[in-house]
Structure formats: C-alpha cells, structure tokens
C-alpha cells in the first residue's frame, strides 16, 4: 500500500512538472490573453497598451488625454465569447464587455474583437487591434 501511495505521488509530481514546463505557442497565447483581460478588467489600460503590437503602437500612438479618457469608465465584466484561428495563424477573439460610466454610474454592454498575432522574432503574442473603443467612435 505504501508503494502505491508513493507511486501516485511520483506520477502527480511528473505531471505537475510537465505542466509547468509546457511553454508552447498556445500556452503563451493564453498567458498573453489572460494578462490582457486582467489589465482591461482592472482598468490598467496603460498596462494593456504594453501588450499591443509595437508596430501598431508606433502607427497609432496614444496621447495622455486618450489614456485619461479611460479613467472615466470601469469594466464590470469581460467575457470571452469564443475565438477562431485564421488561415494566417492569427487568432481572433470576440469579447463581451460591461462598461460603467463612473460619472453617471450607468452600465452598458458592448462587444469588440481582439486580434492576436504571434511574433516569431520576439517569441511573443501581441494584440494587434489596439485598446477597445469604449465610446464607439464618439
């Protein structure tokens, strides 16, 4: 019985180590998406901006005033509605957000689409569609 107990412990440790060592492209995508969603949920839009593709950031720079505008809203929900792998390897993910206006305390729902691209040189996934437009072009 003792042998069986230690055998299961050894198997559990091997599986745990294998899980920790797993750093495949898919795992990196989920890590990047988790970091992105956490930043958005907690209102850290400048932190989320750091996960946007550097080429996109260079082509679409954000001003301090634009970042300040994000301080006027809170995110009450962030739901992943599904993702799709495109032919070019990019991943598109549809997101449902709850957006609260901090001044009026009114909430509204909105959807937006994230696009993720794997950068072979950086060995990292980048979000390539920028921060969500919480004002729908207003």
UniProtKB/TrEMBL annotation:
Segment forming the signal sequence: 1-23
Superkingdom of source: Bacteria
Alphabetical keyword list: Signal
Keyword Signal: yes
Protein name: Nuclear transport factor 2 family protein
Organism: Luteimonas lutimaris
């Amino acid at each position: 019985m003792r042998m069986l107990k230690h055998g299961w412990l050894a198997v559990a440790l091997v599986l745990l180590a294998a899980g920790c060592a797993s750093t495949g492209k898919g795992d990196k995508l989920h890590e990047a998406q988790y970091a992105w969603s956490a930043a958005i949920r907690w209102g850290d839009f400048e932190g989320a901006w750091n996960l946007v593709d550097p080429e996109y950031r260079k082509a679409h720079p954000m001003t301090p005033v634009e970042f300040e505008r994000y301080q006027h809203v809170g995110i009450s929900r962030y739901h992943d509605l599904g993702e799709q792998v495109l032919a070019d390897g990019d991943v598109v993910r549809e997101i449902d957000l709850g957006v609260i206006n901090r001044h009026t305390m009114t909430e509204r729902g909105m959807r937006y689409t994230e696009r993720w691209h794997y950068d072979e040189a950086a060995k990292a996934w980048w979000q390539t569609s920028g921060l969500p437009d919480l004002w729908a072009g207003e």
